[in-house]
Amino acid sequence: MSISIKLNKSGIRKLQKELERNLKSQILIGSNIALRKDSEEFLKLVLEKRDEEGRDTITCSLEIFNSIPNIKMNIENILDDLKVHNCISSNSTIDITGEVMVVLTMDGIEYFEEKERTIKEKVSNVNNNTNNFYGEVNGVQIQQGTINSTQTQNVSSGFDYENIIEIINKIRKYDAMFDEEYGQLAVEMRDKLSEIEGLLKKRENPPRIKALLIDIKNLSMGVAGSVIASGIVNLISSTI
To answer: CA 18 to CA 12: how far, in whole Å?
Structure first.
């Protein structure tokens, strides 16, 4: 069975316009493009008229839309824009006298509520960040929902400052013998011990403290035949 449809010029133009509108609608929906500003203002005025009259089909003069720039020149484009976004029915028209008939849809009635909800969701997505960590994470500090704020963090998780203080005090007891035991390395030993003591007072930078202790251990291991140096190596090895 075959079907044959004949259209006159008016019918062809109407069909062409409808196809263009449908295509444009698909493009807009896919790209999430919002209404034109004048279309939004037009819809806002129509919804205010709806609240006054309690009807979803509004018939009125074009004059009530005079707050919209060049409304007479743009009315057809505005109606098309609203139809493409499914805010008004395709039956909405304007006649030659300037009378407008707007048939609202659910999308049109709820347009501004939906727009506000979408904006809130976007803001919420920006403010609520998810931080994913894979593996062990230490000394990480995160702030959310704050603007231009600063924080001070002392990272001490898993680090026994008191134990290190005790070790340094024991090593310091042999300070007077460093020159004899370590020779030219004695100055370096004392400098590293002093730096550690400064960090311990501030309760900060455990990684640096550990690095300095390893340096002291390595220096001591290079001192051959020293009972004091060997004792320091054993002392530090039991801690780190």
So the answer is: 10
Q: How many CB atoms lie within 10 A of CB 92?
A: 21
**Partners of 101 in the beta sheet?**
59, 93
Residue 238 burial (CB count, 10 A):
9
Residues in the chain: 240
Model pLDDT for residues 64-117, shown as the tens digit of each residue: 999 999 999 999 999 998 998 889 998 999 998 889 999 999 889 989 988 888
The rounded distance, in Å, linking the Cα atoms of 110 and 59 is 20
Joined tokens for residue 182: 């370590």
The verdict on residue 180 lying in a domain is: yes
Q: Report the distance separating Cα 15 and Cα 164, nearest Å.
A: 86
Q: How far, in Å, CA of 158 to CA of 139, rounded? A: 10
- How many C-beta neighbours within 10 Å does residue 102 have? 26
Q: Which of 27, 18, 35 is nearest to 90 (CA)?
A: 18
CATH code for position 39: 1.10.10
Number of Cα atoms under 13 Å in the Cβ half of residue 84: 25
Q: What is the CA radius of gyration of the chain?
A: 39
CB 108 within 8 A of CB 88: yes
CB 193 within 8 A of CB 172: yes
CB 58 within 8 A of CB 104: yes
The tens digit of pLDDT for each residue in 35-64 reads: 889 999 999 999 999 999 999 999 999 999
Q: Which domain holds residue 43?
A: 11-114
